[in-house]
Amino acid sequence: MPYPKVSIRFCTRCKWNLRSSWYLQELLQTFGDHIGEISLIPGETGEFRVVGQLDESSDEISIWDRKLDGGFPDTKFLKQRVRTLLFHDKVSVGKHIERTGQRETLVSSDECKTCQEL
């Protein structure tokens, strides 16, 4: 398997499939030449996590966890985290992503009503 790789784990009951696909497309467009694999994995109820792995012998790196980080990330912020945690800031991703401003980092912090009813 090629490395580094990113996995997006998401709850299908919450209908986060399209959101997950969108993040996949954004990461692939930005890191396409540098990333070995990006995958979508149906996960547990209410789960939305983005994890990475540098190589087959390394531990999984938590890039984003909806429950811990308080919602869904803005793609700019997610790309910054991937760049920092997987590439140690060595990959050039464009000036608009490299800028750090006081902008919101979340797209949404809404809970999944379907999963709350379970």
From TrEMBL:
<dbReference type="Pfam" id="PF10262">
    <property type="entry name" value="Rdx"/>
</dbReference>
<keyword id="KW-0676">Redox-active center</keyword>
<dbReference type="InterPro" id="IPR036249">
    <property type="entry name" value="Thioredoxin-like_sf"/>
</dbReference>
<protein>
    <recommendedName>
        <fullName>Rdx family-domain-containing protein</fullName>
    </recommendedName>
</protein>
<dbReference type="InterPro" id="IPR011893">
    <property type="entry name" value="Selenoprotein_Rdx-typ"/>
</dbReference>
